[in-house]
Amino acid sequence: MTEPHGCYQWSVACSSKIALCAFERSHSLVHELEHVTSQAAPLRNWFSAKGRRISWRTRPLIMGVVNVTADSFYDGGRYRAPERAIAHALELVGQGADIIDIGGESTRPGATPISEEEELARILPVIEGLVHHVKVPISIDTTKSRVAQLALDIGASIINDVSALRQDPAMASVITESDAAVVLMHMQGTPQTMQLAPHYSDVGAEVLQFFEERVDAALLAGIARTNIILDPGFGFGKLLLHNLELLRELPSFSVLNCPLLVGLSRKGFIGHIVDRPVDQREWGTAAAVALAVDRGAHIVRVHDVAMMIDVVKMAAALSPRWSSCGQEYDA
Ligand code: HH2
Hints:
This protein is of the alpha/beta class. The strands form 2 sheets. It has an 8-stranded parallel sheet with strand order 8-7-6-5-4-3-10-9. A two-stranded antiparallel ribbon has the order 1-2. 6-hydroxymethylpterin-diphosphate (HH2) binds next to strand 3, strand 7 and strand 9.
């Protein structure tokens, strides 16, 4: 019988098999697995954003990236004008994006922080221009509570906080009160410092411990577990080997009963391996995305939706983790 994975991985019935599977893949996280598998986990293939269930069945969801910035590491300057950003977001939705992630401030290594007013001026017109024209949830990539609040007020429903609620003490209550979903991402340091000297003794164990701490902090602040998404933060305070190790360790993070998001698209570590500049990393990204799908990612954050949706569909069709989730083919 096929191992139950993917959309069934949170079932009470399957938790011991999941634990066994994760145990086989991870040497360092045994005690965490024992702890979590002793808890009853609900059957869930969804997360909640402002009371709406965002679910998946046969493949991970695709989060399409729209950067309304001048200096993003790949598309900086391209969608700086609101009408261009809106047109690009509509294009990504047309290509099959399940979520649109709008960012007004670059988080690339060494990026110059921008003011709250500047960030608001960049993203609000884009949300306003999109919200009545797309059905997919709109996510906002921000660490600032006021930016989050105003974006949620006009229709966004997910806050993608790369600081995992650590940068702005008011962020957690904004999310609690609006019942938005939140992405809690791991980062060592800040975008200004993170690539200076990343250091871990066991990157997988440290990221898992960080997730436990941040999930506890979010729950304590009143955010429901069903609204929390976790992200290991590829490229955020990590050397090449740390990124590769995290991709290998991905299955072990499912023990926290939260969906996993991965942002691998065109990142520097892919560039190092394939030895190509940022505009030539789509094949390297495709390989990393396919492996992430097989290793348990539920949401894949990408710049190239049209390409990566085929990669995600094919990887899911081939993956034992997803193939038990009700895929049906005519032939
Ligand atoms: N990566 C980037 C930005 N936001 N959010 C999450 N949750 N996970 C990620 O891996 C992630 C993220 C960097 O990509 P991009 O937005 O294209 O670049 P920039 O930060 O330079 O705008």
